[in-house]
Amino acid sequence: MSGHSSNHDVNKLVGSLLDGLSLADRRTLTGFWIAIELYSPDRLPLRKIEAVGADPSKCIEQLRTRGLNPARFEFELITDPNES
């Protein structure tokens, strides 16, 4: 996990569109896992960040707390944008 960001910093990004993140926000998320709703042929969800955590299990906890089914989400580790 990134040593530069606190949970408070990353939690403010829940609800943000992944493709709309600024470079600074992406750097804030470096080293954290995010949960994004899975695509299905029946619907095309926005790539909105629904949870942020140090690992996928923390994202799952957040989703369940909000009454969301974790099986409908994919989990992605955010890497440093400069290393891409």
Give keywords.
3 strands, 3 helices, 3-stranded antiparallel sheet, 84 residues
Please give a quick description of this structure.
With 84 residues, the chain is of the alpha+beta class. The chain has three helices and three strands; from the N terminus they run ααββαβ.
Explain what the structure shows.
With 84 residues, the chain is an alpha+beta fold. The chain has one domain (7-79). It is 26% helix and 18% strand. It has three helices and three strands. The protein has helices at residues 7-11, 23-29, 56-65; strands at 33-37, 49-53, 73-77. The model has no long low-confidence stretch (mean pLDDT 89).
Order of helices and strands: HHEEHE
Structural class designation: alpha+beta
- Radius of gyration in whole Å, from Cα? 12 Å
C-alpha geometry: globular
Q: Ends: how far apart?
A: 17 Å
| Count, helices | 3
User: What characterizes the major β-sheet?
Assistant: 3 strands, antiparallel
Helix content: 25-40%
Average pLDDT for all residues: 89
Largest sheet, order of strands side by side? 2-1-3
Topology:
Blueprint: H1 7-11, H2 23-29, E1 33-37, E2 49-53, H3 56-65, E3 73-77
Antiparallel strand pairs: 1-2, 1-3
